[in-house]
UniProtKB/TrEMBL annotation:
Signal peptide: none annotated. GO terms for biological process: AMP biosynthetic process; ATP biosynthetic process. Keywords: Hydrolase. This is Unannotated protein. InterPro entries: His_Pase_superF_clade-1 (IPR013078), His_PPase_superfam (IPR029033), Nudix_hydrolase (IPR020476), NUDIX_hydrolase-like_dom_sf (IPR015797), NUDIX_hydrolase_CS (IPR020084), NUDIX_hydrolase_dom (IPR000086), Nudix_hydrolase_domain (IPR051325). Pfam families: His_Phos_1 (PF00300), NUDIX (PF00293). SUPFAM superfamilies: Nudix, Phosphoglycerate mutase-like. The keyword Hydrolase applies. Residues 1-127 form the Nudix hydrolase domain. CDD domains: HP_PGM_like, NUDIX_Ap6A_hydrolase. SMART domains: PGAM. The keyword Hydrolase applies. PROSITE patterns: NUDIX (PS51462), NUDIX_BOX (PS00893).
Length: 286
């Protein structure tokens, strides 16, 4: 089984990229590290960048993964483009036995300073996706009580234990994309899916009947999606939208992409620039 790691290629204005020097290997590379047990790769990428550089980032478009041999095993590293949230100053970072230098390096210089060819390839790929994007996270609600066995109004059908676990697992993944606005169907199972993140970061959930199974129409969903894309493009902050399986094809059609057929509790992250989808990725938080 591969060793799994995650990291980010972090850019800032001025054509600069964030690199670290590891004393043990005497190499220059991107900030990255192994996943903790049970940790999602998106969460690990944000955590490792902050631990190794002191810079907190949000994730942008995903990059191709690297896979190479280490000792007697193979290692897979998942990468994203990253942007600083807050200060990008690394001058006060306390060097240690693992990382003895952190630097913002001009792109052209980074291509020569990076030690490994696969990192230079990743940097070239990241350069094409470096422009700021907004993350629109489409969420299918978590596992809920059986529709067949539920005798009350379907709108108040709640999550089951497995669904509540999915909702909790969603928290660090949404945080990795700096989600700062939440929109949900008015149905209980959707509201409960976003509730742990809402409570953790102190965000109100905007309730939209147009996202419910009972009240959605293709026209209404398209109108809402267009509004949300415009709203998000104004702030560049992440936005999460939770709805139901029958509504998802309408939402994805409004976004101009095929319905990926999300499983319960699964998410699709769309990276938007000027209202256009430039990259997508799917995750099943665990």
């Amino acid at each position: 089984m591969d060793v799994i790691a995650a990291g980010a290629v972090v850019f800032r204005p001025g054509r600069e990229v964030l690199l670290v020097h590891r004393e043990r290997y005497d190499d220059w590379a991107f900030p990255k590290g192994k996943l903790d047990p049970g940790e999602h790769a998106t969460t690990a990428a944000v955590r490792e960048v902050e631990e190794e550089t002191g810079v907190h980032v949000r994730l942008g478009p995903p990059l191709g993964s690297q896979r190479y041999p280490v000792a007697h095993r193979m290692k897979t590293v998942h990468y994203w483009v990253g942007r600083a949230v807050g200060s990008d100053d690394v001058s006060s970072y306390e060097v240690n036995s693992e990382i003895d230098a952190v630097a913002w390096v001009p792109y052209d210089e980074a291509l020569t300073r990076l030690t490994y060819p696969h990192d230079r390839d990743t940097l070239r790929e990241a350069w094409t996706l470096r422009r700021r994007t907004q993350a629109l996270v489409v969420v299918r609600h978590g596992a809920s009580r059986s529709r067949a066995a539920w005798r009350r109004d379907d709108r108040v059908r709640p999550l089951v234990v497995a669904g509540r676990a999915q909702a909790l697992a969603l928290v660090p993944v949404l945080a990795a994309y700096d989600v700062s606005a939440l929109v949900s169907s008015t149905s209980t199972r959707c509201l409960e899916t976003l509730a742990p993140y809402s409570e953790t970061v102190g965000l109100e959930i905007e309730r939209q009947r147009r996202l419910s199974e009972e009240d959605c129409t293709a026209k209404a969903v398209r109108s809402l999606v267009e509004d949300l894309v415009t709203r998000g493009d104004d702030t560049r902050r992440g936005l999460a939208v939770c709805t139901h399986r029958p509504v998802l094809p309408l939402a994805f059609d409004a976004l101009g992409i095929p319905d990926p057929g999300l499983a319960l509790g699964e998410i699709c992250v769309l990276h938007l620039r000027k209202g256009r989808v430039v990259a997508t990725e799917r995750h099943q938080p665990r």
